[in-house]
Amino acid sequence: MDIKLINIGFGNIVSANRVVAIVSPESAPIKRVISDARDRGQLIDATYGRRTRAVIIADSGHIILSAIQPETVANRFIISKDLPGSED
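Now predict its structure.
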């Protein structure tokens, strides 16, 4: 199994293999997910004090906040799968 890493902004990187979803933080259910993760100690804030624009949900239950758009994160995810040598 290859380890694929995705840059989520400001030099922060997550394992693409562990990502379940990349969503916008606007809706009430996602805000509740963020709040619950903060209470459980499973929230990772990678925004460096900037506005949260993407919420990354990992298969471990960790919630990662990013200051870049969900579309940008998704595009980086797709591009990394298309790179030579990334066949499964």
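The radius of gyration is 13 Å.
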